[in-house]
Design goal:
Elements: E1 2-6, H1 11-22, E2 26-31, H2 43-47, E3 51-55, H3 61-68, E4 73-76, H4 83-88, H5 91-111, E5 115-121, H6 144-163, E6 167-172, E7 174-176, H7 185-195, E8 199-202, E9 208-213, H8 214-226, E10 234-237, E11 242-244, H9 245-255, E12 263-266, H10 281-287, H11 295-308, H12 310-318, H13 322-328, H14 332-349
The protein binds nicotinamide-adenine-dinucleotide and thymidine-5'-diphosphate.
């Protein structure tokens, strides 16, 4: 298939583009390269001519139409994605996540694609309470990010109902794996631990998330890309592997054999959701998909990837993410700089 991947220079989009190339698909990436987009995530694929990269905004109908020309499918990842940033400034979330999705749906309609996969999120349910959220659970998003994604999710449904766009909506749990932006919990914890900086756990540390390895998320998207007879439907993507933030922080420290007390409780996030968890039986029943990774093994592998990939994350921490991280986590950037000097000195003395 010729696939248009929006947001393909971000975390999940770049992992997806990589998997699509491995599977023999023809891939076009449309990405605006916001602070979250990083061409280093795709460098080898671009250099080897294995994908077509277009810099552009999903809110721009002309750029979207150009990117979609000749494509059979669109997988729409592009979004503003960080809950904490949506608390600081919600406007860009409404623009990109809601308007950008409407433009991409309109583009799909005009290009007459065979499949539009809308990458939504489990955050749109809000609190999952005592039972994991099902696809028919009420949507009670609690952050401007989640509310914008809920609007986008329902637009995808509306474009199917109104215009017959073959949209499928996916609501995945929290992802971990390589190439995740350093502002997100697991890379942030890993980078902190590597630099000897205390891992900043919000509030009580008891907030729970369900975790999936990014490759399992991508393989679920492929299962839905090919499946017929599911237009207009939503699918949860989950693993059942639920952990509190404190458990995640300890797992990261464990992977680095770091001091277990290198954790600091910091001010809580406003509107912090106590628990996100989904029931993913519909996806498994419909496609036969199941996850291949397990949290306990693959968190170790992921954290080791960050330990070995300082060349990938240091330019972001010391560059485009610097002022955000300095303001939010005073001392972290200085710790990364100090660690960099030390490791350089160590390398020179060898
Ligand atoms: P990310 O922030 O790492 O990447 C987002 C990408 O979108 C970046 O490359 C950015 O440059 C691009 N982008 C932003 N605005 C754009 C615009 N206007 N036009 C074109 N490109 C633009 O995000 P991610 O974690 O990879 O998430 C990808 C998608 O998956 C999002 O839609 C997110 O809501 C959804 N999702 C993420 C998770 C998770 O755990 N990360 C879980 C479930 C769903
Ligand atoms: P995050 O990666 O931001 O994903 P989301 O908010 O979309 O679930 O955060 C995952 C969990 O980690 C969430 O409960 C908030 C918590 N967290 C911290 O405790 N400290 C931090 O510095 C960050 C960024 C997140």
């Amino acid at each position: 298939m010729r696939l248009l991947v929006t947001g393909g220079a971000g975390f999940i989009g770049s992992n997806f583009a990589r998997m699509a190339v491995r599977k023999g698909h023809d891939v076009v990436v449309l990405d605006r390269l916001t602070y979250a987009g990083n061409l280093a995530n795709l460098r080898d694929l671009i250099d080897e001519g294995r994908i077509t990269f277009l810099r552009g905004d999903v809110c721009d109908p002309a750029a979207s139409a150009e990117a979609a020309r000749g494509c059979d499918g669109i997988v729409h990842f592009a979004a503003e994605t960080h809950v904490d940033r949506s608390v600081l400034d919600a406007g860009e979330f409404v623009r990109t996540d809601v308007l950008g999705t409407q433009v991409m749906l309109e583009t799909a309609r005009k290009a007459n694609v065979d499949r539009f996969v809308h990458v939504s999120t489990d955050e749109i349910y809000g609190e999952s309470g005592s039972r994991p959220s099902r696809e028919d659970s009420p949507l009670n998003p609690r952050s401007p990010y989640a509310a914008s994604k809920a609007g986008a999710d329902r637009l995808a449904y509306a474009y199917h109902e109104t215009f017959d766009v073959p949209a499928v909506i996916t609501r995945c749990v929290n992802n971990y794996g390589p190439y995740q932006h350093p502002e997100k919990a697991i890379p942030l914890f890993a980078i902190s631990a590597i630099a000897g900086f205390p891992l900043p756990v919000y509030g009580s540390g008891t907030h729970r998330r369900e975790w999936i390895h990014v490759e399992d998320h991508c393989s679920a998207l492929f299962a839905l890309l090919r499946k017929r007879g599911i237009d207009g439907q939503a699918f949860n993507i989950g693993t059942g592997e639920r952990r509190s933030t404190m458990q995640v922080a300890r797992a990261v420290l464990g992977a680095l054999e770091g001091r277990p007390d290198l954790i600091r409780r910091v001010a809580d996030r406003p509107g912090h959701v106590a628990s996100h968890a989904v029931d993913s039986r519909k996806l498994r029943r419909t496609t036969g998909w199941k996850p291949r990774h397990t949290f306990d093994r693959d968190i170790d592998r992921t954290v080791r990837w960050y330990r070995e990939s300082a060349d990938w994350w240091r330019p972001t921490v010391l560059g485009s993410a610097r002022s955000y991280l300095e303001e939010r986590y005073p001392g972290l950037v200085a710790a990364v700089e100090g660690w960099g000097r030390q490791s350089l000195a160590g390398a020179e003395s060898i």
